[in-house]
């Protein structure tokens, strides 16, 4: 809930105080909400998929998030072009790329087909991660229960 509030506050700041045209606000909010849910699912997925101390998981997760962001073109557009040209499959399983593609489609394209494709793919990826977490957590035995 705190993430949603912070992101909505950021959107209000961008739109009304800075005057940035973000496109259809309802569609932007939808991407933000799905992105938050995906981020939490990705964190849970990462937490149950890898063994190690909390510090190791946090460090590894930070590196993975930076790598995914770089592959989505958030650090250099040339990296995104290279990934799209040579390894297009990575763009379809990268949550950062799907979020940026959805936001790009709202701003640059008049057709929303790419937006809906990115949102649906992001939702499917999120559901897969949540299902993995549920099945992985069901197998754990806890002494306190």
Domain tally: 1
**What summary fits the major beta sheet?**
none
Order of helices and strands: HHHHHHH
Question: How many extended strands?
Answer: 0
Compute the CA-based radius of gyration: 17 Å
Average per-residue pLDDT, rounded, comes to: 91
Structural class: mainly alpha
> Which word captures the global form?
globular
Helix content: over 70%
Uncertain segments: none
Distance between the termini: 28 Å
What is the helix tally? 7
Instruction: Tell me the fraction of residues in β-strands, as a range.
Output: under 5%
Describe this structure in words.
The chain has 145 residues and is mostly helical. The chain has one domain (2-138). The protein has seven helices and no strands. It has helices spanning 2-17, 25-49, 54-71, 77-86, 88-93, 95-108, 113-138. α1 packs antiparallel against α2 and α2 packs parallel to α7. The radius of gyration is 17 Å and the shape is globular. 21% of the residues are buried. The model has no long low-confidence stretch (mean pLDDT 91).
């Amino acid at each position: 809930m705190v993430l949603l509030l912070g992101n909505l506050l950021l959107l209000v700041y961008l739109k009304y105080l800075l005057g940035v045209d973000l496109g259809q606000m309802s569609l932007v909010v939808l991407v933000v909400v799905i992105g938050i849910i995906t981020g939490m699912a990705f964190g849970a997925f990462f937490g149950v998929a890898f063994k190690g101390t909390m510090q190791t998981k946090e460090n590894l997760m930070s590196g993975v998030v930076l790598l995914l962001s770089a592959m989505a073109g958030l650090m250099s557009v040339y990296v995104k072009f290279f990934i799209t040209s040579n390894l297009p499959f990575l763009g379809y399983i990268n949550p950062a790329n799907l979020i940026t593609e959805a936001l790009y489609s709202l701003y640059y394209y008049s057709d929303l087909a790419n937006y809906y494709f990115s949102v649906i793919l992001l939702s499917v990826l999120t559901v897969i991660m949540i299902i993995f977490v549920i099945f992985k957590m069901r197998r754990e035995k806890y002494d306190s229960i």
